[in-house]
Amino acid sequence: MTKNLLALLFAAFITCNSLAKNTIDPIPVTPISDNVYSIVSPSFGLPTPENKGWNSNSHFVVTETGVLLFDTGSSELIGHRIKHAIESVTALPVRWVVNSHSHADHWFGNGAFPEAEIITSKPALATMKDHGPGALEFYTRVTKGTLGATELVYPTVLLTENQTRSFGGVEVSFIFSNDGHSPGDLLMWLPQQKIVVGGDVLGSDWMPIITGHGKVPSLIQTLKDVAALKPEIVLTGHGQATTVASVTRDVAFLSQIWAQVKADYGKKTTEELVATVQAEMGPKYGAIYKDFGSDIKRYVTLLVQLQS
Ligand SMILES: [Zn+2]
Fold first, then answer.
1. What percent of the chain has pLDDT over 90?
2. What is the block-wise mean pLDDT of the chain (308 residues), using blocks of 10 residues?
3. Which of 94, 100, 196, 286 would bridge 282 by S-S if both were Cys, CB 3.0 to 4.6 A apart?
């Protein structure tokens, strides 16, 4: 009896321990400056059972009165892990959350921050409401349930234009991309720290992320505007922190590929256009972007669709 009881207790301990481990496994925090930190996902790409949906970055600013968190990850469970990671740096609570845009991997963790004011743009919220429930089903399916239970918690503070606000003494300028990557994307510029924080508008090792509901000319203009701020550090939605060199590189790449597709649209088939882009741009950009070879066909096809 005692032996059985001990075995049961041991089994319970193992189960609880692994459950606790699952929920609060520490994820590393990367210090960026005195009061700015990044939580960088090692995974880039689609949600899978292995990454449990965690494929995007979050960043946070520790102010005098609380934490400002930029993006909350792809699930409530990931949101809790992010919260736990923040607690390893400061005892101050997360008082404000900014969702950079409507894609699931940037706001599905909102449920872990019930006390926070959650900020996004008006178009981003509308897109979250349109696509959030379908995206949750998709994420749950492709991660084979490892995403965990997630309640969709929508932002309540909506921005409609560029503006500056102080959070616990830290000045933050919100920049609209004018739908560059998706409707209502927001970036944050920290003028004191000379750090720009972008969701998927800013990239590091991969081609700039374009989508069917984004506007490439707006994306190019936003990247030019960001470069003009002369940021010292550029924090991205996916991949490592980078510098303004990545931003100017992306301006050059996007400008050239957009002009090429525009010039040949209606004159060449998509296959011919892909071949032209590969010949004209492959030698340079194939060595720069990790996904150029594997993704350029899909990329050009999408750029063709965006012409109409
Ligand atoms: Zn996105």
1. 89
2. 40 37 70 97 88 95 98 96 96 98 98 98 98 97 95 98 98 98 98 97 95 97 98 97 97 98 97 97 96 96 95
3. 286
CB 198 within 8 A of CB 234: yes
Distance 133 CA to ligand 1 centre (A): 16
Structure tokens at 302: 């999408």
Q: Which residue has the tokens 């481990």?
A: 21
Q: Ligand 1 centre from 17 Cα, in Å?
A: 34
Q: How far away, in angstroms, is 108 Cα from ligand 1 center?
A: 12
Burial 131-147 (b: 16+ CB within 10 A, else e): bbeebbeebbeebeebb
Q: Domains in the chain: how many in total?
A: 1
- d(CA 30, CA 141) in angstroms, rounded, equals 31
Q: How far, in Å, is the centroid of ligand 1 from the Cα of 182?
A: 7
pLDDT tens, 249-278? 999 999 999 999 999 999 999 999 999 999
- How far is ligand 1, taken at its centre, from the CA of residue 181, in Å? 7
CATH number where 130 lies: 3.60.15.10
3-state secondary structure of 197: strand
Range of the domain at 150: 2-305
